[in-house]
């Protein structure tokens, strides 16, 4: 894949992150990069006062730096700003940060040498991923602390993940024959003044969220069969009458999953209406898809954005200090995604309750093989309720908070990286809630008779039973929940549903 600074998509990023596609830069893009660097050299030679090139940073923007000190200025910048704390980002997020930072610099507005971009891609293609602490970013001026830890690796400092181990950067570079670089004028600032930590975390969360949202519909379909749900509520006319295409699509997919089921019922056959957690699946899940569509749009814009400061235009004739590093667009998108994914867990937990509560169904109490002597799925519902409650706390919008920094020079910040991190935490919790629903739904469907299930859901059930066997006796269900969650994380819809027979789901 060739980077141009303008053409990254979530699909292409997915190929790089998970299918190890090799990444390079187009020659035309590198020409732009070189011209931008020449403009920076000219600014230094002419001793022009330009922020971050011949001045200090933040509140020190009025302090002029002599040309002989510009390299030391960049080194000091990276060292002083590398103060991230806490657990590292997942390795795949560090990989995404390398890709996204390179793509931003390729746009040719940042003034770096081509070697800086080449070195970022050397690390990416050699699978040398920086160890980057998760906490410490305000999300404006960009992700300064996390990106400083990324910049350290270009200089041969810090730590990296390499071949399954965490090691010092120098060791990994030496084994791959990659030379560290000394940062020149503006290069340190260009590397760290951006939104790539929050965007990378957001991209990874989104890719997993999109997959989980599809899985949630398949799991809900098994629950509908276990509870002999009324299929009429998914009739296309109902959803077209509302007008949201995402809602229409959810209803269609569930109809197709359940097309040949002998376990669904018609209205009035057993009951007139189902509870909302069954009847309103298209409306609730569809609304989450609407939010995900919004998030997709914002991420794909940000992945191709120039987000550092200052930006260099017209071969250096116009250098402007602006605020493209401000993470507000991603902060709001991540807060929106948090709510959307939390709601998938919310409604899933209510379906779990309907599966296990003997006052709400005609299944064995708590799906127990021996109600009373054995508790069955009783405490699995507790666990789901706990995760859903934790999600409600994490879903509080990070973007409504701001604390001034740099002696009040940077007096409004986005907290977008916190929003992205919390979105990923909510995602993990939600996957576990859906794993619990799947375990309970399989048990309920087994009680009804798996031979009566639809072709699509029966295939899903059969694969699920290889992960979590039938509950014939109480056991340590924590292991089952984690096994089911891990399976969902590693599986995509095409591997869960046989689309060749009985299902036309797209």
TrEMBL record:
Pfam families linked to this entry: Lyase_aromatic
Chief location of this protein within or outside the cell: cytoplasm
Family, as annotated: Belongs to the PAL/histidase family.
MF terms in GO: histidine ammonia-lyase activity
Protein name as catalogued: Histidine ammonia-lyase
Cross-link (5-imidazolinone (Ala-Gly)): 140-142
GO term, biological process aspect, one: L-histidine catabolic process to glutamate and formate
Organism: Heyndrickxia shackletonii
CDD domains: PAL-HAL
EC number(s) recorded for this UniProt protein: 4.3.1.3
Pathway: Amino-acid degradation; L-histidine degradation into L-glutamate; N-formimidoyl-L-glutamate from L-histidine: step 1/3
EC class: lyase
Reaction catalysed by this enzyme: L-histidine = trans-urocanate + NH4(+)
């Amino acid at each position: 894949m060739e980077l141009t600074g303008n053409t990254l998509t979530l699909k292409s990023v997915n190929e790089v992150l998970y299918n190890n596609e090799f990444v390079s830069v187009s020659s035309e893009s590198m020409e732009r990069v070189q011209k931008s660097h020449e403009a920076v050299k000219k600014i230094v030679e002419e001793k022009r006062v330009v922020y971050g090139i011949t001045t200090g940073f933040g509140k020190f923007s009025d302090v002029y730096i002599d040309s002989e000190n510009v390299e030391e200025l960049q080194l000091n910048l990276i060292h002083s700003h590398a103060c991230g704390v806490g657990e590292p980002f997942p390795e795949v997020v560090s990989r995404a940060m390398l890709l996204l930072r390179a793509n931003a610099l390729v746009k040719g507005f940042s003034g770096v040498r081509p070697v800086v971009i080449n070195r970022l891609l050397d690390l990416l293609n050699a699978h040398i991923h920086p160890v980057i602490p998760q906490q410490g970013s305000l999300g404006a001026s960009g992700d300064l602390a996390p990106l400083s830890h990324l910049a350290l690796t270009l200089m041969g400092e810090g730590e990296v993940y390499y071949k399954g181990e965490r090691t010092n950067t120098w060791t990994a570079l030496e084994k791959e024959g990659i030379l560290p670089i000394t940062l020149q004028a503006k290069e340190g600032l260009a590397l760290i003044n951006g939104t790539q930590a929050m965007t990378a975390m957001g991209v990874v969360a989104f890719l997993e969220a999109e997959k989980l949202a599809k899985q949630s519909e398949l799991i809900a379909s098994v629950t509908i069969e276990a509870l002999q749900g009324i299929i009429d509520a998914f009739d296309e006319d109902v959803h077209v009458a509302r007008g949201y295409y995402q809602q229409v699509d959810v209803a269609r997919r569930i109809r197709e999953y359940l097309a040949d089921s002998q376990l669904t019922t018609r209205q009035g056959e057993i009951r007139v209406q189902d509870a909302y957690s069954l009847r309103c699946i298209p409306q609730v899940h569809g609304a989450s898809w609407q939010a995900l569509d919004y998030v997709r749009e914002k991420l794909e814009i940000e992945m191709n954005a120039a987000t550092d400061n200052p930006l260099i235009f017209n071969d250096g004739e116009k250098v402007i200090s602006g605020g493209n590093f401000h993470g507000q667009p991603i902060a709001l998108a991540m807060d929106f995604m948090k709510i959307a994914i939390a709601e998938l867990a919310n409604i899933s937990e209510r379906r779990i309750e309907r599966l296990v509560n003997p006052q709400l169904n005609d299944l064995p109490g708590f799906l127990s093989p021996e109600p009373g002597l054995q508790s069955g799925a009783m405490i699995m519902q507790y666990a789901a309720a706990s995760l859903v409650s934790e999600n409600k706390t994490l879903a509080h919008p990070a973007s409504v908070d701001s604390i001034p920094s740099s002696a009040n020079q940077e007096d409004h910040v986005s907290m977008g990286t916190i929003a992205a991190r919390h979105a990923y935490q909510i995602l993990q919790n939600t996957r576990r809630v859906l794993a619990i629903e799947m375990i309970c739904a399989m048990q309920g469907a087994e009680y009804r008779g798996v031979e009566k299930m639809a072709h699509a859901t029966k295939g899903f059930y059969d694969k699920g039973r290889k992960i979590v066997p039938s509950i014939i006796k109480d056991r340590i269900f924590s292991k089952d929940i984690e096994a089911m969650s891990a399976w969902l994380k590693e599986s995509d819809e095409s591997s869960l549903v046989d689309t060749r027979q009985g299902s036309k789901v797209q």
